[in-house]
């Protein structure tokens, strides 16, 4: 119980403190975006969601998970980012800070899709962090997949579909 509730909360609090310190150090909330690392273009792995194969970058460190796809201007049709957490069964919060493209968020637990947030729009420029909408699976998950908005509908991806992660 402790791991499933307290650890994710502590992780979010640490993230908020670090972002706050970076904003304070910069002297301007507008400069906070300078400190958001961009995806490294690291190794690409292939996973299968329903029948669709997707080439994914793996976000398996705190730094990569914080950066996510922030600052990315486009993804190919079957590209995305797979968020891998340090523990199984977490309930993470995601937001669209620094996002330049709309996304589908696919929440994965025990090898199945547990929730899909479809067509999440980019936030209007200048949206304060406190006004950014957050997204959560509502139940523990093991992975989160970010793909182009509309991917789920175009590929008939649904809740309860299988996800093959053997390629990672």
UniProtKB/TrEMBL annotation:
| Transmembrane parts of this sequence | 6-23
Mention any Pfam family matching this sequence.
DUF192
**InterPro entries per record:** DUF192, Saro_0823-like_sf
Arranged from A to Z, the UniProt key words for this protein are: Membrane, Transmembrane, Transmembrane helix
The keyword Ribosomal protein appears for this protein: no
| UniProt xrefs under PANTHER family | UPF0127 PROTEIN MJ1496
Name the chain's protein.
DUF192 domain-containing protein
């Amino acid at each position: 119980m402790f791991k499933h509730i307290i650890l994710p909360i502590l992780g979010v609090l640490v993230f908020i403190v670090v972002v706050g310190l970076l904003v304070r150090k910069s002297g301007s909330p507008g400069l906070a975006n300078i400190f958001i690392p961009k995806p490294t273009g690291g190794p690409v792995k292939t996973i299968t969601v329903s029948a669709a194969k997707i080439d994914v970058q793996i976000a398996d460190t705190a730094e990569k998970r914080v950066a996510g796809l922030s600052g990315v201007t486009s993804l190919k049709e079957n590209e995305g980012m797979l968020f891998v957490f340090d523990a199984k069964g977490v309930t993470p919060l995601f937001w669209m800070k620094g996002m330049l493209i709309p996304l589908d968020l696919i929440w994965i637990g025990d090898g199945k899709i547990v929730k899909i947030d479809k067509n999440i729009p980019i936030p209007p420029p200048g949206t304060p962090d406190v006004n950014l909408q957050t997204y959560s699976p509502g139940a523990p998950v093991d992975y989160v997949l970010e793909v182009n908005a509309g991917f789920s509908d175009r590929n008939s991806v649904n809740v309860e579909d299988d996800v093959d992660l053997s390629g990672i």
